[in-house]
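Hi C.,

You asked whether I'd gotten around to modeling the 202-residue construct. I have! Everything is below, sequence then structure, no commentary in between.
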Amino acid sequence: MAATTKLQRELADPSAARRPTALDAFKLARRRFQDAERVDMSALAAELGVNRVTLYRWVGSRDQLLVEVIWSLADRTLERVDARIEAQGAERVVQLITGFLEAVIANPGMQRWLAEEGEAAMRLLTRREPGFQPRLIERVDAILREEAGAGRLDLPADLHEVAYVVVRLIESYTYLDLITGERPEARRAEPILRLLLRSQTA
């Protein structure tokens, strides 16, 4: 995805940043999110010592800033979960996605965001345009291709299509409360993932 905002350019090349910068805004917003606080643009601008016009010029919009914050947390979570998995093939993918879902559902910032801004959150994370969903699909696709390339995964379908379905499954169970009123639970997704990926390991 081409870098279009100052924040995205600085995320791609942190050495180019000077304080106070868009990266400072990003890090502050991420701390606010992790502390289960609302990401308020006026408060961020005041703490950074810049005006709102400058902040918006840096990050594009509150929505764009939130997408970058959520993706950075998701990316880090995927890496952390994957690092403790010893399984390979379909079982690696099942454990990774289930572990990722558990972390997302349990995250206090995500819980607050979904409770207070659920419709906006779903719009940002489940549509292509904001940029979160394509990156998650790309990450899952890369994992599937890594296992397939090593001869540990053999699926009778296009792997990009499988990655898309896996991401839609993640979305469905993350937003279960908003969609059906039921409590989100990562383990409910596990048997569906096993069916999709043809994993028989208990």
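If it helps when you're writing up: Residues 6-60 form one domain.

Thanks,
B.
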